[in-house]
Each structure stands twice: as structure tokens, then as C-alpha cells.
Amino acid sequence: MKKSKMLRTIASFVAVALLLTGCGNASDTTDKKNSDVKSDDSKDSVIFSISSEPTSLDPHQTKDTISYLVIFQMFDTLTREEPDGTLSPALAESWEFDNSGLELTLKIREGVKFHNGETMTPEDVAYSINRAIASSYTSAFTNTMESMEVVDDTHVKLILKERYAAVLNCLSSANMAIVNKKAAEEAGDSFAKQPVGTGPYKFVDWSTGEKVVMECFDDYWRGKAEIKNLTFKIHTDKSTAAIALEKGEVDVLYFPNTDDRQHLMDLPNVTWEEGKAATLYYVAFNCRDGIFANVNLRKAVCYALNRDAVITGGVNGLAIPTMSSIPMNTSFYKDFDGYDYNLEKAKEYLSKAGYPDGFTVKMKCNQSSQYSKSTEVIQALLADVGINVEIELMERAAYLEETQTACNYELTFYVITNNISDPDYMFTRRFHTSMERGGNNFTLHTIEGFNELIDSARGEQDVDKRQELYDEMNQIVYENAIICPLYQGMTYIAFNSDLQGVYTSPAERHYVYEYSWK
Questions:
Q1: ∠ CA 368-265-276 to the nearest 5 degrees?
Q2: pTM score, two decimals?
Q3: I want to staple 302 with a disulfide (CB 3.0 to 4.6 A). Which of 57, 316, 322, 339 is the partner?
């Protein structure tokens, strides 16, 4: 049986240091690969199984993970997040902030070709970023960006609304990919199915409900890919996809079912890899309205929760317990001691709150098993200290409207996916009072000075000072029991054992350009 491999912890300080210095050695990303494609036709192609159809191949008009996965093969970004989470130069060779921190000037790589044969210019870059800023799909990454302008033949300038230390991480998102201006303007809405980028693979065909086909781009600026033909095959049934992988009909299976885990691990021709996902699962409280406005009750719940039990019963043991509100594979993460499992302390805080015999509370829950199974374990654990939880299962859209928009709930169990390797994504969206409701901050806490700490950390460009600020904020979340972090999710990938360069990715950034056959 093959042993699963755990993705190593993010090399966070490298990413942040690179962000702050405004320059980097691009040699690692620009070394050309061996351009001799293998002569054996069976070993120059990859079939990559995905569970659903991309919503769009226009990087500025989508925000789902499957679309991102496909887009990353055809498009490049100004900066690039590596498999280990560090940040590298990509279409931008170097960069520098001005003294105000509100203007970021980037040196554009010269001689880069688009798939239509045109050479990328600063006009293409500025057009792409402004097009992204104007899109309703990209706000998670662009809300601090005002506009981008051309400086000269090799430079562009990004103007920010406020100082934002994580802006270079945002520029590595698929939503910020560089498109060919001429092709995008001529295609209009059809660009979603006629994509033209600078990536290692160029678009060939999209058969709705079946597959997306690409071929390697001979003039790719980093060198021609070893895999000549790439097909994303759509399998809505993951068990069917697992059988196809076993038979050799597909080469890579993205996010397979954990029910198939042991079988796939036992196969001699398949390798299973798993690692930390950029997902933090936690119990959230309505800290302003209702019974959990009482901080002692929130602390009682936190002490009553056994993380190992929730992981075992909720996700079959496939998660990593955590007490930090900063995901592990994120810059500025440090080991953190939060609320351990302690029934005596839970009962002590129930008494302090005036509920020595417990109480009854309704817990609204997304009906998906991703949440409902863990919620049932949470229900059983809280019953041990006299907290009677009545679970209300809800359809996803209704659940989000009720809990995260209307904030009509007492406590719930949910997740945040940290889409960039920076804790601001978590703290601003979940804890800044300006983000209340609308699917972001639904805890409704009232902690004096917390907004100012979040704002300071967003703009702080000194690494040590940012670390101190995030340590302080993590402590505030703990002391006020705004949320109770329980576990970090995991990500999985299974693939043909003869295929090299395949890895798990916390934010699901899979670069087929790195693949090759043995």
C-alpha cells in the first residue's frame, strides 16, 4: 500500500519577504524545460478528471475552483503562487511600492507571446487588470485596487485605494490573469469560449458536459511543456472517475471521494496524495443578538468541543485539528494554544453565565454532509454539559441567506477558504465590522479597537510588525470566543504512478506544466 504524503507547511515568511522587497530572482521560473516532447504518443498526453463543468474560461468572469483549475493552464498572472505557497515573479519580473504604499510599479517581462502570436505589451496588462477590477466576480481580490495605468514600454502602475500588504498575493489569483486585449475586445462575451492567454497550453475545444481540450503552446515564455496534449474530462460521478483512473482511462483525478481512498491507495498503478487545504472549519456565534451575546456561554461551548471526536465522526478522521483562526498554510501562522477539551471548565463557564443546568438552543446547518455530520457530533458533545442543541438542516441558499446575510441564528458550523496565502483574507472578511452581513462577517462582535488592528495589519509592510499584529488579533479572537476553530480541511489528488510532478495544493492551484511522464 502506498503511504499518503502530507504537503509540507507553507514557507510563509519567504512569500511575505518577497512581497515586501518588491523584487525577486526569476531564474527558477524562467528556466526552460526540455522542449523535446516524448515520441511515444501514449506518454505525451494527460487526461485530467474534474467533477463539474467550468462556468467560464474567461478569468475575469468566474469565481469557482474548477474554472480556476482549467484557467491556470491557459493564462499567466503577474505573480505566481508556487506549490509550496511561496510567491514568485511571473509576467512581472520585479516590482516596487512608492513611499505612500498606494502605488505599485511592476516591470513587465519582455518578449512574452500570446497564443494568437501577438507579443504581450503593458497595454495588455493594464487592460486585463482594469477589466478584472470592473468585474463583479473579482471583488475578493480587487476591492483595494483603484486602477492600473501604463508607465512606459516595460512598466505598469497599480494604484490602490489603501495600503494593502497582500496585493501581490491577490495578483497571483486566476481572476487577475492577463488576457490579450485585441482578442478579448473582438470576442466580447464569446471570449469565455475563445480564450487567448500566454499560458503553457492553448485552447482547442470545449465539448459541453464532456471535456475541455488544450494543446501545448510552442512559444511559451518558460519553454515548451513536456505534456503535449491536455484534456480536462468531466466526470460528475467521482466513483466512475476512480474506476477510469484504475483502468488507465484518465491520468489524474482531482479531489476524489474519500470513500475510494483506501482502494486507490492499494492499487499498484495509482498514487494517492493528501495535504492541508486552505479551509478552516469552525463554530461561529452570533455575538450581538441572542443568548451568545454572553461571552461566558461562548467559552463554555469552546471548552466542550473535542476536536478529535468531531474529526473522527464528521469527516472520517481526515482533517487536522487546530486552535488558531489563521489557517496553517497561510503566512503569519504560528502554533496557537486555544480552548482545549475540558468539560469541567465548560461547566464552570456555564455557571458563570447563569446557566448551571444548561439550556436549549437551535443550530442552523447547511444540509450538505460536509457540515451536517460534524454538526451532529457537536450536538452530542454539547449535550454532555447540558446544552441541548436542536439542529435545523437547511438548503444551501436558504442557509446562507438566513445565517450570513440576515444573521438570524444563534450558533452554526461553517468554513472559510483562504484563497490567498495571507491572513487578511480571513480577518477582514470574517471580523471587520464594515463587512457585516453579505456573506462575510456574520459574528456581529463589538470589540473596541479590533477594526483598527485589522486595518493596520492590512497596510503594514514590515514583516515583524505584521506578525505581532496577527498574533494579537488571534489572541483577541480567542479571548472573546468570537469563533471556535476546530479543524483544517484536507485536499486530495490521485494519479497514475508513472506521472511525475503532481502535488496537492492548498488553494487548488495545479500546474500541469510541471508534469512529465517517467
A1: 55
A2: 0.82
A3: 339
